[in-house]
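Lecture notes, continued. The same structure-token format from the folding unit now serves as the input rather than the output. Read the line below as a description of shape only.
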């Protein structure tokens, strides 16, 4: 009988592959292979492409990242142009792009890695070619910032830009139905962040930024969330109160047809959720290599609802009162 090790070995040897090839090679049941592949992705042993090969995403190992460029032919025309431009320039400043290219870069998540740069307290978005080493992004971004400063007559301090991976990716179209069912499948994305500091460039390990569990019964919002999740058989693994009675970061787990799934949950007590709220939560979720569940007692702004099918694709919203 086929097992996880045999599936993993096959993908490492033949990847990137679509499930049909695995089923054919190993002679296994389609459902079983699909469940095993999903589990391997959740365990970070395999990766799943956002772009689809003839309508099906591909599975691959970390060492096979360069090979996923075979998906280029399945991109739309504007996405191909964005792909070519990013591959050539390595780093692109989002603010200087036309709306068409901004959308295209958000759609090619396999190849465009968003970088959030903190410039004198203001956050700005850049895009990195996915094969560019993280430690090489800082100098290129610094050069782009310096060039802009000169052209506008502003002087930027000569500071090093350390690149801190916030992880594997970020950034949502049509109204979604209000329901409490949590979709199972989620693609891994990579999202990184850059801050301007005087320190030397260095990578920040994911393990350095762990969530602290807060043992408290005083926060009414936390109590409400615990009750809500308990009633829906959602296990809380870790939790951290960001703002008392209004914002909490949680790691959750729940059963699915393919086994236990783990999500990062951003819980917000807010009347109207905007795109900045979702975007910020995505950064945190991507830093933890987990899909995002955004739980809220409020409503999403119309603009944000439309973005859920595009820039924020893959984010799940959980409404409760």
């Amino acid at each position: 009988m086929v097992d996880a090790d045999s599936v993993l070995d096959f993908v490492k040897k033949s990847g990137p592959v679509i499930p049909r090839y695995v089923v054919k090679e190993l002679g296994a049941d389609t459902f079983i292979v699909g469940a095993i592949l999903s589990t391997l992705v959740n365990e970070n042993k395999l990766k799943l492409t956002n772009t689809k090969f003839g309508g099906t995403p591909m599975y691959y190992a970390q060492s096979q990242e360069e090979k996923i460029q075979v998906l280029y032919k399945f991109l739309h025309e504007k996405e191909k142009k964005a792909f070519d431009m990013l591959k050539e320039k390595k780093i692109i400043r989002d603010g200087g792009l036309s709306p068409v290219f901004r959308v295209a870069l958000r759609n090619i998540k396999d190849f465009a890695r968003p970088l959030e740069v903190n410039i004198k307290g203001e956050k700005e978005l850049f895009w990195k070619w996915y094969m560019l080493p993280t430690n090489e992004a800082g100098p290129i971004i610094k050069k782009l910032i310096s060039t802009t400063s000169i052209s506008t007559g502003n002087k930027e301090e000569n500071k090093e830009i350390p690149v801190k991976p916030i992880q594997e990716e970020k950034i949502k179209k049509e109204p979604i139905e209000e329901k409490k069912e949590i979709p199972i499948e989620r693609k891994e994305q990579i999202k990184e962040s850059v801050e301007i500091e005087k320190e030397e460039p260095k990578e920040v390990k994911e393990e350095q930024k762990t969530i602290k569990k807060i043992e408290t019964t005083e926060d009414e919002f936390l109590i409400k969330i615990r009750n809500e999740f308990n009633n829906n058989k959602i296990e809380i693994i870790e939790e951290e109160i960001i703002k008392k009675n209004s914002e909490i970061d949680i790691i959750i787990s729940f059963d699915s047809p393919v086994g236990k799934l783990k999500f990062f949950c951003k819980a917000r007590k807010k009347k109207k959720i905007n795109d900045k709220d979702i975007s910020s939560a995505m950064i945190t979720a991507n830093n933890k290599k987990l899909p995002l569940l955004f739980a809220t007692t409020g409503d999403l702004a119309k603009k944000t609802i439309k973005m859920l099918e595009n820039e924020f694709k893959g984010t799940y919203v959980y409404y409760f009162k």
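Point for the exam: The chain has a mean pLDDT of 79.
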